[in-house]
Automatic annotation (TrEMBL):
Pfam families: ParA
Function: Binds and transfers iron-sulfur (Fe-S) clusters to target apoproteins. Can hydrolyze ATP.
Family statement: Belongs to the Mrp/NBP35 ATP-binding proteins family.
Keyword RNA-binding: no
HAMAP family: Mrp_NBP35 (MF_02040)
UniProt superkingdom: Bacteria
Upper classification of the organism: Bacteria, Pseudomonadati, Campylobacterota, Epsilonproteobacteria, Campylobacterales
Protein name, UniProt field: Iron-sulfur cluster carrier protein
Length: 390
């Protein structure tokens, strides 16, 4: 069969979902024939696997007597992004923002943030922690910087630093024990100030320790900061997993790529014999991870040394690096770094997912929606007035 005959046969293959053929669309870029061997190069416009699969089924039907090799050139699949829209870049020096979240309080979210951030810094990354848990900002205590004076340069504050990690928290800026009863918009404003008015250096990763839950404040906050990855912290009991689902659903709704789940308090390591016993049904997070097409970043046992490390400001990952627990945090950090690095090859930088909302404006509010629409119009070359010129 010569190339012309092959092309004629391919005219009978419709591009999936259309009435025109792959030849009419100009998707067949090259054909090479040698005896019964034929290689066809196709450039298609869809990233969908189903489209490629259907063409792989249909093309051999019209060329039954040839040994076919099909090469598909497809556009890169679009990677999920936080639904913050590109625009005003309030913290361009921060490459990746990682949100640490939990469905409910007390599951070890702050403990995880601290140890994971230090583990990431120990693997050579420039790391910061922003303590956005306005209701219980305990990162300063856990990092051993409680009560330390913040240095102010001009009208901006310098982050504190401990164990190779930059730290800023409402806990540092508020008086100790000051109760905060804030609503979403105020939290959002505070977060934006903590990003804008703090002299963050160039960071590879900024971990944000979120308030627990998925209430209004949580959603507003999640929509207002650019997020490259979300980590869900949970304990393995089924009751806790129900809350966890809400948190993972929130990531999905907001198009935050889920880096994985940390199963905290998953078993008990006996300080005397070093054996691990199951208390809260450890391992249930694997099922949850499968359900949400993500991974378990690590399973951390209940260990007195973890709590002591938190209370004394001497995190276990730094002070007992040879312990089983420290090694699990290091492994979790490795998995997170690998996930973030894989995004790099897809060109998803913080710059591409910066928020555009001015402080105090919710991305979901009518005003927020208007700002988003204008911004998108400007990006695509329109005048931004909504007149429909683009
Ligand atoms: N794996 C663990 N083993 C032992 N104690 C732990 C472990 N994880 C956390 N803790 C302890 O449990 C308590 C609650 O942890 P943490 O403050 O990290 O939880 P949280 O989810 O951030 O809570 P909040 O909702 O108040 O912000 C702390 O005293 C901490 O030291």
């Amino acid at each position: 069969m010569n190339i012309e005959n092959i092309k004629k046969s391919l005219e009978n293959v419709k591009y999936p979902g259309f009435s025109k053929s792959i030849i009419d669309f100009g998707f067949v870029k090259d054909i090479k024939v040698e005896d019964k061997n034929c290689t066809i190069y196709l450039d298609i416009t869809s990233t969908s696997k189903e489209v490629e699969d259907e063409l792989r089924r249909e093309i051999p039907k019209v060329l039954p007597n040839l040994n076919l090799i099909l090469f598909f050139n497809k556009p890169k699949e679009e990677v999920q992004k936080s639904n913050s829209v590109s625009g005003q870049n309030i913290a361009p020096q921060i490459k990746k923002i990682v949100m640490v979240s939990s469905g409910k309080g007390g599951v070890g979210k702050s403990t995880t943030t601290v140890n994971l951030a230090i583990a990431t810094a120990m693997q050579g990354k420039k790391v910061g922690i922003l303590d956005a848990d306005i209701y219980g900002p305990n990162i300063p205590r856990m990092m051993g910087v409680n009560g330390k004076e913040v240095e102010v340069v001009g009208n901006k504050a310098k982050p504190l630093n401990a164990y190779g990690v930059d730290i800023m928290s409402m806990g540092v800026l508020m008086k100790e024990g000051e109760a905060v009863i804030w609503r979403g918009a105020m939290i959002m404003k505070a977060i934006q100030q903590l990003l804008r008015d703090i002299l963050w250096e160039e960071l590879d990763i900024l971990f944000i320790d979120m308030p627990p839950g998925t209430g209004d404040a949580q959603l507003t906050l999640a929509q207002s900061v650019p997020v490259s990855a979300g980590i869900n912290v949970t304990t393995p009991q089924h009751v806790a997993l129900d809350d966890s689902r809400r948190s993972l659903d929130m990531f999905q709704k907001l198009h935050i790529p889920t880096a994985g789940i940390i199963e905290n308090m998953s078993g008990f390591i006996c300080p005397n014999c070093n054996t691990e016993s199951d208390i809260f049904d450890k391992g249930t997070c694997e099922e949850l991870a499968k359900e949400y097409k993500t991974q378990v970043l690590g399973s951390l046992p209940i260990e007195p040394a973890i709590r002591r490390g938190g209370d004394s400001g001497k995190p276990i990952v730094y002070f007992e690096p040879e312990s089983i627990t420290a090694k699990r945090y290091m492994m979790a950090a490795e998995k997170l770094i690998a996930m973030l690095d894989s995004q790099e090859s897809n060109d998803i930088s913080n710059e591409a997912i910066q928020p555009i909302m001015p402080a105090g404006v919710s991305a979901c509010s009518p005003e927020g929606q208007k700002i988003k629409a204008e911004h998108q119009a400007k990006k695509s070359g329109g005048c931004g007035t909504g007149c429909g010129c683009k």
